[in-house]
Every structure is written in C-alpha cells, then in structure tokens.
Amino acid sequence: MKQIIIHVDMDAFYASVEMRDNPSLRGKPLIIGSMPNERGVVATCSYEARKYGIHSAMNIKEAYRRCPNGIYMHPNFDKYKAVSEQLHEIWNTYSEASEYVALDEAYLDVTKQAENFDGAREIARIIKRRTLDELGLSCSVGVAYSKTAAKTASEEKKPNGYFEIPDKKAFVDLMIDRDVRSLYTVGVKTAEKLYAAGLHTVRDVQEKQDEVIRLLGKQGHWLTQLAFGIDNRKVEPYLPQNAKSISRELTFQEDVTNEVLLKDILFLLSLCVENRAKRYGLYGKGVTLKITFSDMKRITRSKLVVSCDSAIEIYKEAVQLFELVEKRPIRLIGAGIYNLSTEYEKQLSFDDYLQDTSRTGESELKEQFDKMQCRYGLDFEGHLEQIYRWDTLHKTAEYMRKHS
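and the corresponding structure tokens:
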C-alpha cells in the first residue's frame, strides 16, 4: 500500500491563540515577539499584520516601521505548549505515526487508518473540525503521497485551507513553473546561488540537474529529486513512552450543569485514557481533571497517586477533583494521567491483602456500566471499541446530554 501522509499546520498559531483568548484582538494587526523598543524579531503575526508585509523572523523595528499602529505582545510559550499538547491528542487519534515539526505543525502517517484518499480526506475533515470546535483554532491541512508534497499541499490554501496532491505527476504539474524557493529546504542563501547560475524555476532544476548538483553538492542531489516529486522519507513515529501525559477531552454542543451527566462523561473519558495507557504499557503517577467553563475560563486540577492505569482508578480520582470545583455551566471536560512510566508501583493496604483487588475493580466497572445503561438505555460495555473513537464518543455524549 502506498503511503498517505497528512501535514497539519496551524494558522498563525501564537497569534490565533491570543486572539481566541482575547476576542478584542481579532481583526487587528497582532505581532507576537519583542516589543518595538526592544531588540528582537517577530515570532509570528496575524494575517491582518501580514498585509503590511510583516513576517516571522523580521526585525521588530522594521515591523514597527511598517505597522506602527499594530498590537505588539510578548509570546506566552507555556500557554502555546499547553495548546500544542491538546493538538497532539487530536492528531494522534488518527495516525499510525506522528512527527512533530514544531508546536503547531506535524506529519501524520494515516496509511492504515485511511486506506485510500477518500479515507484520508475524511480524517482531514475531522481534524479541522475538532481543532475548531474543541480549541477554537483553525488549521490548514494537506494530504499527499509524500512528506514534501503534504507540506506543499497544506501551504497551498492558507489560512484554514485544504489541498490534495495524490501523486508525483500532480506535484510536478503544480510546481514546475514556480520559483525554486517553493521547493522544500530552499532558503534565501540557496536561492541566491541558484539565481546566480540562471536557475530560477523548478523546471530549470529539472532540466539542469548536473549544474544543480555541481553547485550545491548533496543538497543539490536532494533538490533534483524533489523537482521530480521524489521523496520516500517515512514519518518518524511518535514514541508514546516519551509522552508526558495521556488525556481525553470532550466539548459539549451546549453547556452542561448536570453533575451526574458530567461524572458519567468522566467515566467514559477514563475508559479512553485506560485504553491508550494499556496499549503502550504506561502507568500514570498523577491524575488530572480539565474543565472549560461557559465563559471560556479554563482550569486544570491534578492529584498525585502511586501508580494508575485503570479506568476505575482514574475515574474515582477525577471525580474527587471534580467535587472541589466551582459548580457552573461547563463547555469542556477532560480526564488524564501524567508522570508516565512503564513501571507499575502499588502501595497495598491491609485490606488489599485480604481481597482480590482486580475482581473488586471489575465489579465496580460492571456496576458503573449498569447504572449508565439504566440512565441512558445504551449498552456501553458492549460497544467499548467504538466509544474509544472520538466521533462515536462525541455522538454518545451528545445523546446522553439530550436524554439526561
């Protein structure tokens, strides 16, 4: 099976996060980086600022000269990293392997999950929808046969774009008469060398391969391959054991105040976390609860535990944290584990020695399933594999909300 790769690239990521969190910034030229009176460069900027010719890595004083009425802010990397981790949770759901290029960009190998371009197109659609619905952010997505083509595709219709490049011929047809700068890895200095040699377009690189290789050596050989759409690189797999946390979140279509419903949703989320943790043999030494209220205020509560990977344990700890949270309308709720390890540690009490704790957990699990089936008329236990999928989980939660 030929590989199918998705490239996801967030639109003006830092600026978009700030505008999401402060709607008064929307529609204005927002520049994230240094302040105009400081030394430094632009980290990123809104699309309104780009109309003034501002771009990332531009000297901040030049940016101010072009746009003195812009809004200038220092970046909040802790915030962006937290949002990036939420993005990764979404992306990882649909990929066999994920390769993160930056906080806001990744290659996803969806060959097995998608099976064909129709399947990949649906996955891309879901990723775009979830990113907007759950995080309030837009992204551009490219689907293609290679990493280079996927990245090219994601840049083709920015912002909030979607584009496909199904094969090498489609890539060459798209790129053939474009400037050499449009080829992956060709920066300003490389382009200057090519221009000086009379090589201005991708067609020139195709027709004068020997000249390109003589001029640039190993990089030149790589560029001649790219000019013909050849890129056999694989997506470097994401290693779950390197993750810092595993979590699952769910955004409601309408705000929820029903505490019984919210606890039942926490149980389903805990099952999803357990499924992923056990798949990779990981245990958490902490449990987290995430909540976004109706006014978009976000809170995270956490609690250290000895070692945890079971849904019942995660659920119990998350509920305890939930009981301490202010009760008001909730837009999003999530549960997770952190401080991950492949080593299991358990501190047994005297009572644990007198009973089979695994059977106790199974009994509690069954009891919770039975209660929820009575409340909503759904066979949760018999459809766990489907509930682990985001789309089914979301539909199930919405059904529960409407029938609670």
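(Above: one complete record from the training split.) The longest strand covers residues 245-256.
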